[in-house]
Design goal:
- 20% of the residues lie in helices and 24% in strands.
- The chain is α/β, with parallel strands linked by helices.
- Strand 8 and strand 9 (203-209) form a beta hairpin.
- Helix 5 (243-253) runs parallel beside helix 7.
- The protein is globular, with a radius of gyration of 25 Å.
Length: 492
């Protein structure tokens, strides 16, 4: 029979373990038990709680959806909202009036040879980026779709606003060190540029600045340690999934795993956030063993009920003990374009009856115990990594904060709803924790802003691939990755 136990590293967390302390949980065969496994079965630990507010996510809830608007509206709205912010940033960054530099309202008002500051939206011309017109050249389209990066040495930048556009070049000359880095910028970023309009119509850039981090709410003071568990990529229905690791996860989050000391720690987990990709993407080649909602041959959408039922069962076990937020992801049964809407209640009938369960949007923002959390299921960062030259997930995450925008490449290379009166992806309030799900590895670091903001960046790996979740301490924002696995001990 299997006996479940926590690994030998677990005690380090209870002894004031620092950030990145790794904990492991394993299941082993055999009949041996440790002293920690013998404890009073009647002892119970009350679940700690923390005030919760998901009102900030309401801006991503779509009511009546209409698709008769042009995508240009979202760019106009984005530019107008961030232009007002950048005007103040420019004065503090360059001090235009004191340096004799003119702040020009629109591109068409730039004067040749006059050193000026202009605000606009970047467009990155990329030869390798797929185009709708390429659908007529099928072979070329297939090659481009297989590319993991669209970055090339021939990429150029263009600045646009309501009045016109101009090509950007790096300023050259003695004593000039241009800050224009084409490889690190992306379409959709609103920026202020310092430079001079050349005779050929190009704008030679000397320096640039971004909207930077918005105002951050005060960090709450706490006396006790409470935790939020973040994970992503359960991917139910994937053949390689480890059912023992998933059950260990459910037992741990619900407080049924380990000794009294460990269960007391588990009771301090006040909330669980699952950042997308909870079920596998539909693959017609691996349909065997799954029940279809519609018989083959019909024109109705085909859905797989098995993985969703298994997800519903796991969420029911967890939500019976601790509140759960479920975000949709790229493989989940909901709309494809951002913002993704909550999964329909009919898909999760069992856990949907619990008041502790919340099906949320992607992106998602909430306050837990006064700590502001903001995150996505990974699509915006994955898309940015295709159009900028960077190997660091955390660097790209920090860039989105400095740009004050969650998904600048939407709607250019990332699908989104055609908003016409707002851009809900603008970051209006600086979070304390900024997380991204379904990434290649667990990574974290702290970012500091000019006004004293401190943000914990958190890259969440896929649980199906890594068996890892992350516990965030609400008192210190320290992160503790925990890994779940299983092994069979041979009889001796």
């Amino acid at each position: 029979p299997f006996t479940m136990e926590t690994g030998s590293h677990a005690s380090s967390l209870f002894a004031n373990g620092g950030c990145d302390e790794v904990i492991s949980c394993t299941a082993r065969g055999g009949d041996g038990t440790s002293e920690d496994d013998i404890h009073d079965k009647e002892k119970r630990f009350p679940r700690h709680t923390a005030p919760y507010d998901a009102e900030p996510s309401r801006r991503w809830r779509l009511g009546k959806r209409t698709f008769d608007k042009q995508y240009s509206h979202i760019y106009y709205t984005r530019l107008n909202d961030l232009r007002m912010i950048l005007r103040d940033v420019v004065q503090g960054h360059w001090g235009c009036s004191s340096r004799g530099v003119c702040l020009v309202e629109h591109i068409l008002r730039l004067e040749e040879g006059v050193r000026s500051v202009v605000i606009g939206t970047l467009y990155k011309e990329m030869a390798l980026k797929p185009s709708v017109l390429d659908e007529f050249a099928k072979e070329r389209t297939r090659v481009k779709d297989r590319l993991s990066s669209f970055v090339s040495d021939s990429d150029t930048l263009v600045l646009e606003d309501e009045t016109g556009r101009c090509r950007l070049t790096a300023a050259t000359g003695e004593g000039t060190d241009s800050m224009l880095d084409v490889e690190c910028l992306a379409t959709g970023v609103v920026v202020a540029l310092l430079g001079t309009l050349q005779s050929g119509g190009d704008f030679a850039v000397e320096d640039l600045c971004f909207p930077d981090l918005p105002v951050q709410p005060p960090f709450p003071a706490r006396e006790d340690d409470c935790y939020v568990a973040l994970l992503s990529g359960l991917v139910y229905g994937q053949p390689e999934n480890n059912p023992v690791a998933l059950q260990l996860l459910a037992d741990y989050l619900s407080g049924h795993l380990g000794s009294d000391r460990e269960q007391e720690f588990e009771s301090r987990i006040v909330r669980v956030i699952i950042a997308g990709n909870s079920v596998t993407a539909f693959d017609p080649e691996h349909m065997e063993g799954f029940q279809l909602l519609h018989a083959p041959g019909t024109r109705q959408p085909i859905e797989l009920t098995g993985p969703i039922r298994e997800l519903d069962l796991l969420l029911t076990q967890v939500a019976a003990s601790v509140p759960v937020d479920l975000m949709p992801g790229g493989t989940d049964p909901t709309n494809f374009a951002l913002p993704q809407q909550p999964m329909q209640p009919c898909l999760l009938p069992s856990v949907g009856q619990y008041a502790t369960f919340s099906s949320t949007t992607n992106p998602f923002e909430c306050s837990i115990g006064g700590v502001r959390f903001l995150g996505t299921s990974g699509q915006p960062i994955d898309d940015l990594l295709r159009v900028v030259k960077s190997d660091s997930i955390l660097d790209v995450m920090e860039s989105t904060l400095r740009w004050r925008h969650l998904s600048p490449t939407a709607p250019d290379t990332l699908a989104c709803y055609p908003f016409h009166d707002q851009d809900p992806f603008i970051i209006h309030t600086c979070p304390h924790v900024y997380f991204v799900g379904n990434q290649s590895a667990y990574m974290t670091r702290t970012v500091e802003g000019r006004q004293g903001q401190q943000i914990r960046l958190l890259s969440l790996p896929s649980f199906a691939q890594s068996g890892t979740i992350v516990l965030v301490n609400l008192r210190t924002l320290n992160c503790h990755p925990m890994s779940f696995g299983c092994s069979l001990a041979r009889d001796t």
